[in-house]
Each structure stands twice: as C-alpha cells, then as structure tokens.
From TrEMBL, chains A, B:
Statement: the UniProt record of this protein carries the keyword DNA-binding: yes
Pfam families linked to this entry: HTH_1, LysR_substrate
Keyword Transcription regulation among record annotations: yes
Descriptive protein name: Transcriptional regulator GcvA
Family designation: Belongs to the LysR transcriptional regulatory family.
SUPFAM superfamilies: Periplasmic binding protein-like II (SSF53850), Winged helix' DNA-binding domain (SSF46785)
Top-level taxon of the source organism: Bacteria
Coiled coil feature spans: none
Database matches in PROSITE patterns: HTH_LYSR (PS50931)
Residue intervals of the HTH lysR-type domain: 6-63
DNA sequence: CATTTCACATAAGTATAACTTAACTCATGC
DNA sequence: GCATGAGTTAAGTTATACTTATGTGAAATG
C-alpha cells in the first residue's frame, strides 16, 4: 500500500488517454504506438490495484477511480508543462512581456512604445493590460508595473515614481479657471480608480488643501483613470489627475495644470520582476529605459506646492 | 526548441533537489544513489539548454532558471501526489470522511454519530466541519452535506430535507408565551447564518406571516446557527430555528415549538458526492442511513401551518 | 449474414533510460 | 596534511519503455 507515485510515464499516458477518451489518440499525442500506451495504462492499473478504464467494444470509459484521478492528473501535468515552458522562455531574449493596469498601459506605456522600439529594435515588447495580479510562475509575464504601496517580498522591486495629483484640464477650459473657487463653476470629473488609497485623494481632499469650500460630490465618475483623463481631453471638465498618467498630455500641451497645489500620496509605481530576472538583457534594458522615462516626469514637479494627503484629514 | 516536457524522472529529481536544496537528501528521498540523481539533473539541464543549479563547494543554489522552474514543479508534483493518494483511498472501505457546515455538524451529525456507529461498526466516520466549499479532487473528502439551493452539476446530489423555520424555546419560557404577540416581551435571538437566503427568513418575516406587528430588530445576533440554538437552550430567549438543526432538541423535549405557523424556504440540505461514488459501500451505507434519519424529522411537520417565505414580502 | 473495420489487448523481442558500484575532484575543517 | 562531505564521472547492469506483429470482439457495412 504505497502512496508514492506510480511510474510517471504511466501517469502521463493515463492523463492523455483521459483527456482524449481514446487510447489511440493519446498514443498519437505522445508519439508512441497504441500498444505501448495500452501497457502503460495496464501498468498504472496494477500499481493502483484497480482499473481506471472500462474497456468497451469501440470506446473506453473512466471507472470511478479514473474519474477521481483524471482531473488531478490533468491539473498536475498542466502545471508542470506551464512551468517548463516558462523556464524555457528565459532563453528567449527577443521578447519581453509586461503587464500593467489599463490606465498605465494606455496613458504611459502605449504613448512611449515607439521610443522603446527605437532604442531597442531587437526586443519585441508585448503589453498585457490587466488589473489582475499576475503570477510570474503561471502566466507568461516577465515584468509587472504595479501601483500601490508594496512591499513585494521575494521579488525584485524598483520604485519608479511617486504619485501626486493636481487638477488638469484643456487650455481652453483653463481660461475660465483663475482661482480654485472657479472650479465650482465647471464640471468636475472623478477618478474612482484610486479610491483604495488610504488617505483619500479626491476632489474633496484637494479643496481642503487649498482651503476653499466647494461641493465636489457632483460630476461623472470613472472607474478607470484613463477614461477620466480622456473625458478631460474633450474639454468636458477638470479632473484631479495622477501626474504619471497625465504627464504626456501636459507635456504635449493638450492639458494644463494651472494650480501649484498638488496632493502627494504614499502610493507609487513600481517595476516588479522575479528576483534575479533583472539581469536578463531585455529586462535590464526595459528597466533602464523606464527609469529614464520616469525621471523625465519630474520636470513638472518644479514650482509645485506639495501637500501630503495624509496631513489633510487631521 | 521543443516545449514538450523533459523526462519526467528528471523533473521529479529536480523537484526533490530544489525542495531539499541538496542532491544527497533528494536522492535519499527518491531511494536512489546521489550519482543517479546527479545524472538526472544533468539530463534536465541538457534538455533545458542551461543549468538549473549552480554547484558550489559544499552546497548547491538555484539559478534563475531553477528558481523559475521550482515552484511550478513542486506544485505540479504535489497535485499529482494528492490525486494519486485520493484515488488509492477509494479502495479503503473502512473510513468515510464527511464535510458539513459547523451548525449541521454540531446539531445534526454529532448527536447521531453513535447511531451510525451502532449500525455500521465497520466504518470509521470522520467529520470535517467547514463552511468552505470542499473540492473532492483535492481534499480528502468523500461526502459533503450542503445547505442552499443547488444544483450541483457533475456531482451526485440527493435532497435530504426541505428546511422550514418556527420559533423554539425552552418549555419553561414557553409558559410565558401564549400568543405570537407575547414574543415581544421576551428576548429574540437572531440566527444570521441564513441571511444569504433570498426571501429572508428572519423574525420580521415570521411576524408578518402571523400578521402581528412586533419590532424584531433587537436581541443578540449569532453568526452561526448552532450558537443561536445553544443560547435558546439556556432559556435566554426564543430563536426562529431551522427545523433540521433543532429537531433533536425538540424530540428530547429540551426545546418546544409552540406555534403552528412555520416558514418554508426553497433551500434544503443535500447529500453530495462525486458521481458514481454513491455506490461505494460505505458511502451507500451512509446515504441510506442519513436518508432514514432525515425522514424521521418529518414527524414535526404534522399540524404545521406552512407559509412560504417568498409569499410574504409581496 | 458474412465481411470489414475499428479500437484495444497480448506476445515476443529490442532499445534505451534509469540506476548502481566504484573511483575521482575539490574545497573545507580539524 | 589527511580525513570529510558533497557532487561528478566512468563503466557496467537492470528494468522500463517501446516496437512490430498478431489476436479479439463487437459494431458497421453492403
């Protein structure tokens, strides 16, 4: 009565047979003859002490034991296959898969993609926009860009930029807005994507920071930061925008940030990859490039009156 | 550049070596000589195209490739081992592991355990009380008893008893309670564990059913049904109890249900096991026994005035 | 109703992967 | 300076995995 695993080839043969529900197809998948596969199954059944397949005339069906074993076997081999493929992928220094949130992808990465391609024509950059936390072991991801607090234990983590927020709008709209109080007369766009931040960084906090009393509860709300900025780009209203996401638009002059007062947050963007992976050529190249780009964002910090969001509520 | 798996024995050798961080210990685990294990690792590295271990003088450490592969390999083999063990367990007809919620375990299964042991001394029954939905493939569970709506697709499912609810209390307390209105004078105990039921089955619903106006918002609240019943057993107050959980106490006379009006729900208790497993001797015996016991509960249905909870709100 | 066909089982033999024993390397520690 | 510990390598053996060839039984075919 050993609980140790049976011969692994037999288990793999069973997995293939159970997935195809056919010995012949399973044998084809494994590049062996049906006879060999038949023996493997038989061997497995001897180890188990009972059959896993019921042999019908022109088909096979799983016994209860087979049904018990099949899902776990499929799952186990799928895990092994994925891990193996991801390990092999390390040798591929021509592609780099980066995951980031939809907003950062749209407003930060995508506009700079061309720059990166110019600097590193040998690297094929793939973007995977998702809020889901990716698993480097399971998903085919090399690098993640994440916004929040950290720390990321067991991973290589590099702080890219502190985040701060200030009202932005189109230059046309800005003509109507000379003082913070004037914001009460125009539409306020709300970015709900950062509601998870502990000292909240919304319009209410900003108005407190400039010490004016404006009801900021009205106006459209956006669950994704980039949509709020897109709305502001149409001239609809002003949005309290994260600098990292609006930097490109500010630089190009399509948006302006007329007020010096900015809210700082403890959250920041981080570059994350598995420990040790930061030395792989394409990851190193990407890190160097993104750090350089993040540094450029600092130009807008000049002349700002920074107020920490955590100092406001007290 | 094949993405097919390397020799599985080599992968398993790597898994053991990575877990122990020692070739010698890994070899001991696999009952092979260190030399054999060394070859396995070498073979894996040849298949991969790069080393997975860095050989130091008196130790080994994982390379980046090794670190990428190790978690997936460990996970994969753990899955396979679990699946295999669970399949082997099918041949064990002497134990039976049943999972149910804490309340059902405490108030229904536990008091009847002795009966089952009397009927089936050859079966060792194990109870696993947990609200967590168990996975028959992963956890060492044969049978689950679940309360709710179903359906349970892909599983064998047998409805055990419809659930209905009526006020219960100690006989002493019941002397003070002649009409539903009298309930306003005593403490009402609230069972919050069934708040997930769609037409709610709380005191408010029951008072509506008997058409009296009593404020039922006060009184202690219990997140677990058995705790509410335990409180009622001390004479603290009355609880709107699920019949299945209070049946034993009603039968023994420690609680009474003075009112005919009862709320029926669409939820019910179900016996669940993997499809086909219902024919295994100990599972079949348990099913027959639990059905018989559930049938006994029906004796309290006589003379009740059943009102469906979904008819009340309208 | 005989015949073909399909899907798997079995027998016998072979290739190869897995393993063992034994000798080797090379730093570490007493 | 010699034993020790951890891993490597070489040579040879065993057992596993696989192949070819043939067998079986029931369903499909015409």
């Amino acid at each position: 009565m050993t609980d140790r695993l049976p011969p692994l080839t037999a288990l793999r043969a069973f997995d293939a047979a159970a997935r195809h529900m056919s010995f012949a197809k399973a044998a084809a998948e494994l590049n062996i003859t049906p006879a060999a596969l038949s023996f493997q199954i038989k061997s497995l059944e001897e180890h188990l002490g009972q059959p896993v397949f019921r042999r019908l005339n022109r088909a096979v069906e799983l016994t209860e034991a087979g049904r018990t074993l099949a899902p776990g076997a499929a799952d186990g081999f799928a895990t092994l296959t994925t891990a193996w493929r991801n390990t092999r992928r390390l040798q591929d220094n021509t592609t780099l898969t980066v995951t980031a949130g939809p907003a950062f992808t749209a407003k930060w990465l995508a506009p700079r993609l061309y720059d990166f391609a110019q600097d590193h024509p040998e690297i094929e950059l793939r973007l995977s926009a998702s809020l889901r936390i990716m698993d480097f072991t399971r998903d085919e991801i090399d690098v993640a860009i994440r916004f929040g607090y950290g720390p990321d234990d067991g991973l290589f983590s590099q702080r890219l930029a502190d985040e701060w927020m200030t009202p932005v709008m189109t230059p046309e709209l800005a003509k109507q807005v000379k003082t913070p109080l004037d914001l009460a007369e125009i539409t306020l766009l709300h970015d709900d994507s950062i509601r998870f931040l502990k000292p909240s960084c919304d319009w209410a906090a900003w108005f407190k920071a400039v010490d004016v009393n404006v009801d900021s509860s009205h106006g459209p709300r956006f669950s994704q930061a980039d949509h709020a900025i897109d709305a502001a780009l149409t001239g609809t209203g002003a949005v309290l925008a994260r600098i990292s996401l609006s930097h490109k638009e500010l630089y190009d002059g399509r948006l302006v940030a007329p007020f010096a007062t900015a809210l700082t947050t403890k959250a920041h963007f981080r570059f994350i990859c598995p420990k040790g992976a930061e030395t792989r050529p394409q990851i190193k190249a990407f890190l160097v490039w993104i750090m350089k780009e993040a540094e450029k964002t600092r130009s807008f910090e000049e002349g700002r009156n920074f107020i920490a969001s955590e100092d406001i509520q007290g």
